[in-house]
What does this fold into?
Amino acid sequence: MHHPLLRYIDEVARQGSIRKAAKVLNVASSAVNRQILKVEAEFKTRIFDRLPEGVELTAAGRVVVEHCRRTLYDYRSIRAAIDDIRDLRSGHVHISTLDSMAFSFLPQVIDDFSQDHPGISFTVATAGPEETIAGVAKGTVHVGLSFTRDLHPDVRVVAEKPSPFGVIMRPDHPLADRHYVTVEDCAAFPLVRTVDARGKTSLIDKEIDTAVLPLSAVFFTNALIMAKYAIKAGKGVGIYTKVGFLSEIAEGSLRFVPLADRVLSEYKIGAIISAHKNIETSAHLLVSTIERHFRKVDFT
It folds into this structure.
């Protein structure tokens, strides 16, 4: 991937002698000298001053050697990373994810990943956005799948997908044939709501002033699977992203109608990692798999 000339120049600079460098490189001195003369002719300047006791870098030569060494270092880093990928036999990845991503998206990612890396084990925990982001920031979570609003400065997004909120309902619901609905439209119907198990809050509370616009909730739960049951049973409608309902929407047992609310329609879900800690090779490869699956699905 790189020309032997880089190694020639680097070694001559280290040894201060073409002859000594050639011996280390196990090539003829004339071959090394010929390559150096060629690059000097190309640059129209000397990179080495020839002295009785050997050679010495010129000012231009120092610039060239710095480039050579940086390129060689980058190449060795690439080789090491590829060796890690090729030789990956074991490892463990701790994932913290939104409940909705655990229904179909994340299992498909893990199945795909495990075909190539069967020795990697996983810990998967569902959590709210704040808990997931805090875990990644502290380094106790390798990869987080969460909403990407209000991120902690110690995390960074490595892959992202638009995931606007809408209304999930049965196909026979009065709002089911709309192209979009407003939060005010939802106020006329019973609501199924998901709350955080500890904080008793939801994203809807954060984005909508329910004191001004009261939403009549008939079913509270901290498990999306129970919210799905309640909506399918006709107990109410839910304000969610598509992500946890993809199969039901595809088969027609539930409908998703986008919300007209600007803030809720601009949400995104992303894969997040630590902004400061180097992640393990296994986690890095999992992120690549997540990114590939993001390109395949539509959450809008």
Notes: The radius of gyration is 29 Å. The domain at 91-163+267-296 is CATH 3.40.190.10 (D-Maltodextrin-Binding Protein; domain 2).
